[in-house]
Amino acid sequence: MAQRGIDLDRLIVLSHAVETESFYKAAERLGVGESAISQQVEGLALECGLPLVTKHGRAISATPLGHELARVGRRIRTESERATKIVADYRAGMGGRLTVGASLTAGAFLAPLALANLRHTHPALTVSLQIGYSSAVVEAVLDELADVGVIEVAVQHPEILVSPFYRDVLRCIVSADHPLAERTVAAAALKGETLILREPGSGMREAVSAALAQTGVTFEHTIEIGSAEAIRAAVKVGLGIAWVSSLTQVEAKGLATINLSDLSIERAVSVIRRRDREPTPAARAFIEALEHAALDIGENP
Q1: What is the pLDDT of residue 249?
Q2: Spans of all domains in the chain
Q3: DSSP secondary structure letter of residue 111
Q4: CATH classification of 96-165+268-297, choosing from 3.40.190.10, 3.30.930.10, 3.40.50.150, 3.40.50.1400?
Q5: Which of 26, 51, 66, 113: disulfide with 17, CB 3.0–4.6 Å?
Q6: pTM for this one?
């Protein structure tokens, strides 16, 4: 027949009594009568068959066994408090599920950094990261398929609250052996180059096309490639030039940058959510983690 375990409530009461060195003070702390504390400790001593405390008038001191069991009681209290917090977090949205929509660049670089930090602080949270075009992220937030979104395009929608948190400066990259590599030139020097662009619908393409249209710079030849990594590979082998986010490794082997004296392309990276919905604690924690990730990277000059 299995031996009955020690009463955990009595261990907790003992821990309070040993900490306060008084049945009276422990009773005050717990909001019960002094006799209730005394009975619990004495009952535990009977369970053990050994004394747990020594009385000195109204004060008490723990025996060696009393100290050991009081430590166990403190651990039980700690775990109980942790369990209470986990339940509260689940009820408040810190547990359960958080769905984040992110555009291609933000989804590949910024959002994972934020989620890594969030995982450490909120391990009970199940996170879904959905990556797509900025327009799809906006729709997901509007349809409440995503709690928050991270995008790199300007959005003006009455139901969307937009909060910019990072300034992404785009860099013009060329192959390392390109004649203009690492030089500072005017945008007109790019005439005759082949421009490699993302596919239609990409926020990167929108930003580059809008900036070039304002400066009047045109390219006779363009190539569309639907992958940031494939664009970098194409530039590396000399197929053309491209603009990429500074979040990517623009100084990778085989690549170089061109500094344009009269053309700067940048875009704001923003977190978005529905205006009529208060963010859950989990969503607020993610937004905070996102802002910290941006600070860790450092805003581009």
Answers
A1: 65
A2: 8-92, 96-165+268-297, 168-266
A3: H
A4: 3.40.190.10
A5: 26
A6: 0.65
